[in-house]
Amino acid sequence: MENLDVMVLRTLRDWRFAGRRALLTTVVRTWGSSPRPVGSIMALAEDGAVVGSVSGGCIEDDLIARYSRAHGAPGEMPSGPPALVKYGITADEAHRFGLPCGGTLELLLEYDPDAASLATLVEALEQGRLMQRTVSLADGAVRLAEAGAPAELMVNDRELVNTFGPEYRMLLIGAGQLAEYLSTMAKFSGFAVTLCDPRAEYRTAWSTPGVAISTEMPDDAVLAFKPDRRSCVVALTHDPKLDDLALLEALQSEAFYVGAIGSRRNAQARRERMIEHFDQTEASLARLRGPIGIYIGSKTPPEIAVSVMAEILAVKNSVTLPREIDVAVAKAAAGG
Q1: Are 167 and 122 in contact (CB under 8 A)?
Q2: What's the pTM value of the predicted model, to 2 decimals?
Q3: For residues 278 and 244, is the Cβ–Cβ distance under 8 A?
Q4: pLDDT, position 73
Q5: Which residue range is the domain that position 13 belongs to?
Q6: Considering only 30-44, 166-180, 186-200, which range has the smallest mean pLDDT?
């Protein structure tokens, strides 16, 4: 699955170029618990087609009924400047719209966004650029600008500013069962995945669609991949000739996650090798993760992939995991 924001914007662009009326919905504020975070977007076409999400489904149903002609719904999409609407202000409304107890959210509705502006935004995101989209609340006029860094959504009485980033990306070093499971999980989590393996015999059985394949040596593949703050690099070969140089290149990048599969003994041996032969230090290797994953007692490739993907998502989302689920710590405590 591609990045959800890009998918929503691309679909909305196509609707508008086809002459279909549509609205773009953005979550701009939440109070209490909320099913979707601030900045989440959804597009609704005049015939009731929906892409994206702003809640668990009930608010989407209400928007369809209000602003489309789907299934005999009496709604009609208005024109004019954007509108702010709130859901879940009372306990009864929160229950009606499927919000958690006490949950309230506010949405900005943009009617018939400009197709050309959407096309420019989508093209920039597909090129890997971080983009800031500013919407005037008075008339719906949109300004686009390249952003220097990710930022939280901002809204005031004059405008809304939302930053859209390019897809998160994952580079896997080494084909095999674990890579297939991990790439599948990464794809449905919104990552664009590239697999690097110069060994033809390992690539012949690769069957996961939608994954870019590199046959370069892994360190060259890392350089070509150009890891940024929305990238992770995971080495899976267990072969130092392939893993080590790739990891060293990745550690010099802004990648938010760099790690390698292996036991505690192998992870320690890798660090010692890098310090002895590649002039590394404990400080320069501080970002290198290994053994990777969280401790769930995983033994099989699919379970190990779940463990690794869970850790990657936690790091991506800036969640500090308790030491008790660190693989090395948990196995040491269990005497394994």
Answers
A1: no
A2: 0.73
A3: yes
A4: 59
A5: 4-164
A6: 30-44
